């Protein structure tokens, strides 16, 4: 006949400073007969009462995800975290706009729509950040009537 060992389990849990659910007891007559704390301590030393290992967080899914990330998965625009310029820096944005403006200026100069003096002036103004974009630059040209109007090639301005 198996006796109830919940009392011994509770005592062992208090001694081991763990939850009663983590106490593991082997089927032994000595455990059923133990009544005091010292008896239970003795059984713990003997190895008849042990504590189960704590369940931790599994890293399996995290490792699998890491493998996929190394392949380049899960890195789309929607995954972006951070500030406004964390993906594309301010410098890269600046380079993109200035290069476009300089390309337009070269086209206008080569087609004879602006003079070399105007080109130099606008080049420096573009470098100084006076123009937001190409359209802004073109509107400035039209407002100040700096475009000569003669076309050599087929630039769309």
The H-and-E topology, N to C, reads as HEHHEHHHH
Number of strands: 2
CATH topology of one domain: Non-ribosomal Peptide Synthetase Peptidyl Carrier Protein, Chain A
**Shape type:** rod-shaped
CATH C-level name of one domain = Mainly Alpha
Explain what the structure shows.
The structure is a single chain. The chain has 157 residues and is mainly alpha-helical. 52% of the residues lie in helices and 4% in strands. It has helices at 6-16, 29-33, 37-46, 60-71, 90-110, 116-127, 134-143, and strands at 23-25, 49-51. It has a two-stranded antiparallel sheet. The model has no long low-confidence stretch (mean pLDDT 91).
Describe the secondary structure blueprint for this structure.
Elements: H1 6-16, E1 23-25, H2 29-33, H3 37-46, E2 49-51, H4 60-71, H5 90-110, H6 116-127, H7 134-143
Antiparallel strand pairs: 1-2
Helix pairs in contact: 1-3, 5-6
